[in-house]
Amino acid sequence: MAADNAPFVRLAGIRKNFGAVQALAGVDLSIPAGRMVSVVGHNGAGKSTLMQVLAGTLAADAGEIGIGGVERQAGYDVHVAQALGIRCVFQELSLCPNLSVVENTRVVHPGLGGFGWRRRCRALIVEALDAIFPGHNIDPDRTAGELAIGQRQMVETARAFTEAGTKVRLVILDEPTASLDADAASHLLRFTEAARAKGIALVFISHRLPEILGHADEVVVMRDGEVAGGGAARDFTEERLVELMGVVREAASEGGRTETSVGALRVEETGAAGRRLPLRLHAGEIVGLGGLAGHGQRAVLQAVFAAAHGRDGHWRVRGSVAYVSGDRQSEGVFPLWSVGLNTTVSRLRALAHAGIISLRSERTLAEEWRRRLEIRTPGIDRPITSLSGGNQQKVLLARALASAADTILFDDPLRGVDVGTKRELYRHVAEAARAGKAFLWHTTENIELENCDRIYVFHRGTITDEIPRAELSEERLIRASFAAGMSDATGMSGAPDMSGAR
Amino acid sequence: MLAEIRLPSASPRVLLPAAALVAMLVLIFAMEPRAMSYFGLTLLLNFALPAVFAAMAQMAVIAAGDIDLGLGPFISLVNCLAATWLTTRPVAGIVALALLVAAYAAIGALIHLRRLPSIVVTLGASFVWLGLALLVLPTPGGGAPAWLTTLLAVRPPGVPLPVLISILVGLIGWLLLMRTSYGTVLRGIGGNPRAVARAGWSLLGGRVALYTAAGILGVLAGLALTGLNTAGDATVGTEYTLVSIAAVIVGGGEFVGGIVSPAGAVIGAWIMLLTGSLLSFLDISTDWQLSVQGGILILVLGLRALEERPAA
After folding, report:
1. What are the CA-CA distances from residue B246 to residues A121, B166, B259 (Å)?
2. Do the Cβ atoms of A99 and B188 come within 8 Å?
3. Which residue among B6, B191, B200 sits closest to A97, beta carbon to beta carbon?
4. Alpha-carbon distance A451 to A445, whole Å?
5. Residues from chain B contacting residue A94 (CB–CB below 8 Å)
6. Which of A13, A48, A58, B60, CA to CA, is 20 to 30 A from A485?
7. SS3 state of residue A456
8. What is the complex's ipTM, to 2 decimals?
9. d(CA A57, CA A308)
10. Average pLDDT score over residue span A30-56
């Protein structure tokens, strides 16, 4: 085994590219046994990718991986990681909803089969739950699907600490407190101290800076796929963390919007439950929804969309609404249809005379949008799946713009689209806004927010800041994303349930 | 807080169809008291055997989050093989049936490896099964192997054979799928495949295991049908596709999410079967049977939606 002072995990020069995108640009990380290292960073900083490499679910392109003092990079995968006692509590819940708590415990312990496994699994999970969340009140025979989201998170966390065969050496906690109430969160944080005393190393990823500074031993700040700084947690302040997380980028918005002619109110939040800043959107405006991904931005888009169809009383929406999703596979394209049909489907009612669609005007409309958005296809009759991802996304944008909707909701629509296409699309969005359309734009890429007139920043389901474009800075955005400097009681008592946003 | 009284596996999902089955039996016995005897029940439930096996086969596929539209013609094919080859050339017959089970395993592997929708693959397979059945036995005929008819004519003391076998099949299915640890993992595949894979299990292996079980159960359904009909017919099994799906759903299963109940599937198969008897006792043409079966399915799904809404 390793010498006592060697770290349990030593990562060096870890690189990972996804196509042309560099997610990790040579990251070094060492995690000593019995210590809790907190990794912080904004969207796309590379935290999740790094954790996936560490957990073995993603292979690094280059770099060294040493676990327990032994070099492991060749053939390092999830099986090896598990055999070495590395566990991961993933951000998206990975329980089987149709299985009971006991049965879910069995799934992660391949060696636990055989007669009496149920009794053994029950003992394991109940013991872990009792140890971490005293008074948890979870019936281990209930199926995971029947539990509230917070309870599911507790089960998942407790499950990572159960031991059968291999000893737990390192647990990666990816936002473990995100859906826990204050009580359960403090129980968990107290438990991490007991775990550390037993020699378990912990990685703690959180968006709550006070939790990090109050409980972690060490902090590593990531930015743009690199480590931007780090050290003992007691040497850091919230200010310093925020400073390290953000770089002041040169303004990248080209031909950006200078004048905004604000028109009539299109969307207005009337029943802002506990929100300090009510959301408003006017005709001709592009309003961004920023902050860390999954903090309630999508829920707002869905609520506005529902309200436009008369199904949500908390919002007043005037005019028609179109929705463009970044998840084009499941929410966007009709994969068996042609480019043209995919474009015009939003406009069929206007194209029809007495219920019969005029094929000629349908073609004309499709051709017009192909030309305007420069969709690269030999013809509008080609199947949509023959297009590149970026061009498919253009078609979806064309569909929304062609729909004649007054307000267009963007749910991170340019995720995974190349830079050149993005620039083109920004231009079209700006043009459409000048023509009076209103945009509500949720993006996980902060740089995209520079295309917006105003930005609402979300933190745990509430709006923590409203930033006019002229005042937009990376630092202010990150500060609001982490609700830094605000007491963490910003309407948090009710621990907003984000299940709707997932 | 009041402790909730709850039996671990007797959820409303299974209690509802069980209550419906009891109601149907009471109605049948009230109209035809003679059915309440050993021979009455044997007669009434004889055809429960192929239906129960078919429901269990379908359940294995639904547990993986898939659906099998080829089961009925597959049962027909087994029926044709059993009525011809198995009688005249037993070795060839046994080999052919083993190959059919292997084909089911291969379909499971194909669906997993190529990420194909099971509904399309099994629909395609259904035409293959039908074509093969017609090749084996172009016109209805043939005869069941003697051992098969003898086996199905066994009269165990006390409990009629179809009841005994239904209970045994339900019990074995419950043990394998609900109580063993690997069965739990298999259901996990239907619930959250990513989580199961991340825990280090082979999804391919799991799906092949479930489809193999479906193939074996499909063969058993075909054999039971042959023993009862004592002849072969290339279209005799067609309706088992829909009956088996309906049995699983009526018995508390869901189309997605790996939610299944072996006991419920057996009960569902009985309910589907008894609709025919109930109609004939009510002096209604059995031409209505399919409509009634479909109506029950819609009713069950509707009631379930009502039950689940307040909990959500």
Report:
1. 34, 17, 14
2. yes
3. B191
4. 11
5. 192, 194-195, 198
6. A48
7. strand
8. 0.86
9. 41
10. 88
